[in-house]
Every structure is written in structure tokens, then in C-alpha cells.
Design a protein that fits this description.
5 helices; 2 domains; 12% helix; 12-stranded mixed sheet; binds magnesium ion; 19 strands; Fumarylacetoacetate hydrolase, domain 2; 39% strand; 261 residues
């Protein structure tokens, strides 16, 4: 099932997507939202972020090739960081190059997990029971802040608009071998299967829930494949007018335009 949040002019609503038609829900499917008799046309609504996460947890260096391209080593334990929830934007909204640090903003295509049930110390074999569904994410990053100025990642990963999510959440999805792709202005920059994840989805849920309580709506970004802009020669950073598309096989395309703040 595909679930989305949208605004039909009358405020935020949840819906079930069936082809080009949305069946309106009485509330969030993460709570007790159920189908109503109302429908809307997908083409006539504004798509909102598919979830308002209580936390956004992200993994770094989770594809070996990417860990090596940015001069890292392949880790024995996942490296985990947080992105501010205020950074979330929807499919179709703009990524803003920050007024203070507009020059080294980079893309990162990622498969995102949406948690459906509260859990702590979740065993790998039980991970699936705690996952509501999956969506696409762009872990937008200001490399100057992340790498040189701050030397930790809070600001570089959390400027407003630095976490596009969507367009919707797919609940029937096998994340073990799907292509994660990023296109910049139509050109493929990243393309790798999730089978190359160092820590797969069950391992990630087990690891993260080993130190923090996962609650419904929590989003976990699973890491980005090789091909980020900063690792290219010469580097490729986002510029005003660019269009990024994160395409996860079976999940659809998350498209955002780049503008100046
Ligand atoms: Mg990332």
C-alpha cells in the first residue's frame, strides 16, 4: 500500500494512493486512520512530506565504495548521526542553498525506513515487525560545514530543506536488493543496489534501537551509495536551478528543485 500526506486546500490529510486517485483516510495510518468514502485526484493536491518524524536518524558510510571515495575506512559498526526534523520538505518543494553557506551543498540519495511501532533493543529477526514502510530521501549536506568548519555534522546536515522525503510511503516493499539512484538535471550520478549496504535494514534497526527508543514515524536514512558530488573531480555541488531526483526502484521518484535562500 502507498500512503501519502497531502493538502487539498483544506489542510493536511492522509491518504491511500490507488493509481492516480487518493482514498482519504480519517487520520494517520500510523495511529488509527481508516479509509473514508472520500477521494481526491492526485494531480489536484499538493503533496506534503509523507511523515512528520519525531526523530531522523541517519547512517554514514554504509556502502563500502562510498566510504572509500570520501577517504574513510569501511567500519565495523555503523556511524550514526541525526538530522533536524525541521529540515524535512516534500516532493516538489525547493532545496534552498543556505544564505550563509551556499557553495558546497551536495546530494545523497538514500532509502529511508519509516518506523511503525515503538521498540527498544529490537532483534534483527524482529525488525520487520517494527517497520511501517519505506520512502526515498535526499540527505542534503553542506560539505564546508560538515567537513572543514564545524568538524561535526549537526549544522551541515540540518539546514532548512536539507531532508527531502517522499513522495509517499510504500508498505509492501522488500529493501534487500533495490536500485538507489540519483539524477542531477537528468544525469545519473549515483546508482547502486541496497544489496551493497554494509549494514542491511534489519541490522540498522537492531543497532539504532540498541541505544534509542524508536517511536512511530521515526525515519532512518540507510546511507548513500558512491558518486556524491564532493568526491568527483572536479567536485559537483548543487547550484540554483538544478533538479535532483532520488529514484528508489519500486518507490517512485522524489524530485526537488534547487533555489537560493
Ligand atoms: Mg547520508
Amino acid at each position: 500500500m502507498k500512503y501519502l500526506r497531502f493538502d487539498d486546500g483544506g489542510g493536511a490529510k492522509w491518504g491511500e494512493l490507488r493509481g492516480e486517485e487518493i482514498a482519504v483516510l480519517s487520520g494517520s495510518p500510523l495511529e488509527d486512520g481508516i479509509r473514508t468514502d472520500e477521494t481526491r485526484a492526485l494531480a489536484k493536491v499538493k503533496i506534503l512530506p509523507p511523515v512528520q518524524p519525531p526523530n531522523i536518524v541517519a547512517l554514514g558510510k554504509n556502502y563500502a565504495e562510498h566510504a572509500l571515495e570520501i577517504g574513510g575506512v569501511v567500519l565495523k559498526e555503523p556511524v550514526v548521526f541525526l538530522k533536524a526534523t525541521s529540515a524535512v520538505v516534500a516532493h516538489g518543494e525547493d532545496i534552498l542553498l543556505p544564505r550563509t553557506h551556499p557553495d558546497e551543498v551536495d546530494y545523497e540519495a538514500e532509502l529511508a525506513v519509516v518506523i511503525g511501532k515503538t521498540g527498544k533493543h529490537i532483534a534483527r529477526e524482529k525488525a520487520k515487525e517494527y517497520i511501517f514502510g519505506y520512502t526515498a530521501a535526499n540527505d542534503v549536506s553542506a560539505r564546508d560545514c560538515q567537513q572543514r568548519i564545524d568538524k561535526q555534522w549537526a549544522r551541515g546536515k540540518s539546514f532548512d530543506t536539507f531532508c527531502p522525503l517522499g513522495p509517499w510511503i510504500e508498505t509492501e516493499f522488500d529493501p534487500s536488493d533495490v536500485m538507489v539512484r540519483l539524477k542531477l538535471n537528468g544525469q545519473t550520478m549515483q546508482e547502486q543496489s541496497t544489496r551493497d549496504l554494509i549494514f542491511d535494514v534489519p541490522a540498522i534497526v537492531a543497532h539504532v534501537s540498541g541505544f534509542m527508543t524508536l517511536t512511530p514515524g521515526t525515519v532512518i536514512l540507510t546511507g548513500t551509495p558512491a558518486g556524491v558530488g564532493m568526491a568527483r573531480t572536479p567536485p559537483v555541488f548543487l547550484r540554483e536551478g538544478d533538479v535532483t531526483e532520488v529514484e528508489i526502484e519500486g518507490l517512485g521518484v522524489l524530485r526537488n528543485k534547487v533555489c537560493r535562500e
